Structures are given as structure tokens and as C-alpha cells.
Amino acid sequence: xxxxxxxxxxxxxxxxxxxxxxxxxxxxxxxxxxxxxxxxxxxxxxxxxxxxxxxxxxxxxxxxxxxxxxxxxxxxxxxxxxxxxxxxxxxxxxxxxxxxxxxxxxxxxxxxxxxxxxxxxxxxxxxxxxxxxxxxxxxxxxxxxxxxxxxxxxxxxxxxxxxxxxxxxxxxxxxxxxxxxxxxxxxxxxxxxxxxxxxxxxxxxxxxxxxxxxxxxxxxxxxxxxxxxxxxxxxxxxxxxxxxxxxxxxxxxxxxxxxxxxxxxxxxxxxxxxxxxxxxxxxxxxxxxxxxxxxxxxxxxxxxxxxxxxxxxxxxxxxxxxxxxxxxxxxx
Amino acid sequence: xxxxxxxxxxxxxxxxxxxxxxxxxxxxxxxxxxxxxxxxxxxxxxxxxxxxxxxxxxxxxxxxxxxxxxxxxxxxxxxxxxxxxxxxxxxxxxxxxxxxxxxxxxxxxxxxxxxxxxxxxxxxxxxxxxxxxxxxxxxxxxxxxxxxxxxxxxxxxxxxxxxxxxxxxxxxxxxxxxxxxxxxxxxxxxxxxxxxxxxxxxxxxxxxxxxxxxxxxxxxxxxxxxxxxxxxxxxxxxxxxxxxxxxxxxxxxxxxxxxxxxxxxxxxxxxxxxxxxxxxx
Lengths: 332, 281
What we know:
The structure holds 2 protein chains of 2 kinds.
Chain A: H1 3-26, H2 34-42, H3 48-81, H4 89-92, H5 94-107, H6 110-113, H7 117-137, H8 143-167, H9 177-182, H10 190-208, H11 211-217, H12 221-226, H13 231-253, H14 259-271, H15 275-300, H16 308-331
Helix pairs in contact in A: 1-3, 1-15, 2-3, 3-10, 3-13, 3-14, 3-15, 5-7, 5-8, 5-13, 7-8, 7-13, 10-13, 11-15, 14-15
Chain B: H1 2-18, E1 29-31, H2 34-43, E2 49-53, H3 65-68, E3 73-74, H4 78-82, E4 88-92, H5 97-105, E5 110-113, H6 119-133, H7 136-152, E6 162-166, E7 171-173, H8 178-185, E8 189-190, H9 191-194, E9 200-202, H10 205-211, E10 215-218, H11 236-241, E11 247-249, H12 253-256, H13 262-278
Parallel strand pairs in B: 1-2, 1-4, 2-3, 4-5, 6-8, 6-10, 10-11
Antiparallel strand pairs in B: 7-9
Transmembrane segments (chain A): 61-78, 90-110, 116-137, 144-165, 195-214, 234-267, 279-300, 306-325
GO cellular component, one term (chain A): plasma membrane
InterPro entries (chain A): ABC_BtuC-like (IPR037294), ABC_transptr_permease_BtuC (IPR000522)
């Protein structure tokens, strides 16, 4: 695909993300006029509209875009690295491990005294999960092995999360299992942006850096080696990038699944399968998908706190099943 | 033989009644609900209340948590309660039906009392508790003191300022809730009632900020362990919108259950209103 044709995909995607970002700022239970809402974004003072726009809607939109971008990106990287069409942070077990790390940080009281313990513990969980999947799946590039390893980690971390929350003496903790399993951006604040955004950006940078190596890897491991591509270095970049980006994202928004699965598959027909082109497109696509889902929640069921992961799962699972069917057809 | 024993027991009860409390007053009362526990503790004669629920020792829900330490506790199990040999069990309306029917089958007298959601119902509940325990005098005294305290804070302003209680997870109280009754008795308008909410319902932070209430009422949330539910209280928007002068802490226990202690909340809110009325914000 020529650079011009690639630009033809990137530009509309960027425009779409920008539009959805503004749309996200304009949707909310308070019902503020468009002109006043946008004006309040730039003005000072403690007027209620200013507070709603700057302290409630802006952080929500920023987090939706950043989290969607890093989820889409890490899905594309994991699919390229493991050469597995079903790989994505949720399926591989990274998000649930990050959730468990975040749960330990919050409910032990650690994050109350040390705010940065929250993203750091979530990132540690995510890192251990990527490491475990690599160790369990080993050299085998078998699709099934990776997925099974992911299922094992997800089940274990889900159970441990439930256990930790049920053991908490706080009566609200048990109800928060849903948040950690399904994710939400409701009532997130600038504090959460400050905690997560730096790590998400670093993670996204590391993930984007794997692009050229993944291009080589798409021709097969042996070819990649003869091209002088350091496989260990690529694996390390992908592992650290996923742990950092997905870990920080999960720490503030809970587990949001299937974004990393759906987005690369939707965009591959448009930008071609060359990873270095697919990665930036997947970041934009992920941002667009999570922004859309978060707007949808607030438009369709404004008075119920519908979880973000519910919407992405409703979109993602049929897609996942279709991929499974296609994989079966290819085997037979 | 059995019949004879019943007659003897009845005679003994009548004799006991004649010597002190009202005739037929139960002697071993077990209360099973945080709300009935607290009323029973205030109304019962010494030794009359044998056991209360373990929840009543929790300061997050019970206004008499300290006093509750003096009573033996139970965990709401039928066999546990039956072994206490009560002649009256008082439960709330939300008690497990299986437990209550089991106790009734075992021949225990079980009475249920709804929780109060207006100040009038608090009065009714205290009086009803007095009848059940055979202590109408003590109940009448409690109601009289309660009414006196409420009368002292009357004087509803012409334009009541808006107040909004805000609980964990962004919930607030709507109409037909004890919190709304307290807020209105203290001379405020309740935000949840204005929004048309019923009972305890979520109010998005955006909506709270846009209505800009004059007073934000925060519960005391003194759980040992943190939870995400309480993160909302640290939201920068809430911090920026409501300075110290525009927020007040009222223990949730003041209106989780209605009781004489509910007047504490009315007084605290009314005092704040009279102060802010003099010094405009």
C-alpha cells in the first residue's frame, strides 16, 4: 500500500477520534448547551458548568481516548508478536492480572497513602501475566496454547480479585467486583489522568517501537533472524509496553475487554497486514471504539451505571466467535 | 398435666405484672434488627432485653453502638435465638421469613416493626415499642422529649436553601426517606426530592454540581478498609465546588434508623442554617 493510500486511512480515523472526543465532552446527565459547554472548557472560575466540563467530562474523554488507544495498540502488537489472531490483552490474561494488582493496591489501603502504588501494582500484575503466558506457551506458536494459558491466568486472577474484595470488611467492596471485571469511566477525575496517562504514553511508545521488527517477524522467525531483527529485544519491548500501558489503563478504568481483539481485525483490510502500518491505525481505532462505547453508555442508559466492558464485550464476543469459526475452517 | 402447668405459668405472669410493669409484659425480649434494637434498648426496663443483633455494635449504622456493647449479641440465626428462650422476638420487616416462621413454629411470639421514613413514624414506632414491651410510660416520655426538641428547631424559612446528602457511590436521598424528612424539618429543601427521586438513589456528580446546593451533607464513613465507593468524596470537582463552609458531616446512623437520636441531625442542620442565614456566603 502506498503512503498516500495509508494517509487516506489515517486522516479519516484521526478526524473520527477528534469528533468522538468532542462528542464525549458534550454528553452527560447535566444537559449543557454545546456553545456554553465548549466555552466553559477554557474559562476559569468555579462556576458549576466550568467544574463539570473541566473536572468531570474532560478527564473522562481523555481517559477513554488514551485507554482505547493503548488497548488497540497492544492487541495489534500481541497479534503480530504471537502470530495469533485471537491474541489481545484481555484474552491473554493481562487485564485481569492488572485488575488484581490494582485491587490489592486499593483495598489494602496502600494507594491511599501512596497514589502511584495503584498504577505500579497494576503494571506489575500485567507484567507477570505477559511473562507467564510467554513461559507457559513457550516456543510453541500454537494458537490454542496461548489462549489456554490466558484462560488459566484470567480465571485465577478473577477468583483472587473476588476473594480479596469479599474479604474486605468494607461492605461496598464486594459490589465493586463488577467494576474490576467489567470496567467503567464513570466519575473518573483529573487525578486518575495524572496517575495513568504518563504510563499509558510510555507504554504506547514502547509498543509503537516494535513496528519494524514485527514487519520482519511477519515473514517468519527465521527470515526475521536473517534480517538482523533482535527477537529478544522485540519481545521485551512488547512485554514492557503492554504491561505499562494496559496496566496503567486497567488501574483507573478496570478491565475493558475485546478492544484489542476487534480493532486490528477491522483495520487490517484497510491498511494491509504490515504491522508498522497497522499499529498507529489500531491506536486510533481503539480510541474511537472506547469513546463510542462510553458515549453509548451515557446516551442509551444515562441513569444506570452500565459498565464499559459490558458494551465492548457485547461488540467483541460475536467477533471472537467469528474468528474461532474462521480458524476452525482454516485448520480443516 | 400440661394444661395445669400453662395455667400456673399464666398466673405467675399476671402476678409479676401486678408487681411492676404493665400486666403481661414480656420478660425475655430478643430484638433482631438494628432499628428495633435501638428502640428496644431505649424503652426496655433493665434486664428485659436479653439480646440484640451484632450489627447494632457497628457505629456506621447504629447510633447506639457504644451502649450496644452492654448487651449480648446474636447473628440472626433461628436456633441461636430460640436457645435464648425469649417470650417475645421483635424483628424488622426485612427479616428472613424462613427464620421468623421457624421461630413461630417453635412457639415463640414474633412481632415485626417497619422502619420509620418520617418523623411521625418515629413517634409511632417508639409508642408501639412501648406497648410491645409493656413500658408505655417510658415510651411516652421519649416521644415527649423528641417532640420538644423538634419544636425548638421549627420556624421554616420563606425560601428554604437547597441541601443534598451525598453518600458512597454518588447516592443521595429522595422523597419518602428519613433523610429527606430530617432535612426538611431543619428548614432546607432536599435535592433528591426536587429531582423526583424516591428512597436512596444515585445522583450523578454533574447533576449535583449543576444544582449547586447551598449545603452538601456528607456521611461519616468510618470503615476500616478503603473502597472505590468512597473515592467520590475525594473528587476534585467536589473539593472545588464545596468549601468547608458549604459542607457538613452528619453520621449516617442518625437516619439509617429513626429514633430519638434522629433529632440530633435535625438540630445540627438547623444550627448550620441559622448560622449561614446570618452570614451570607
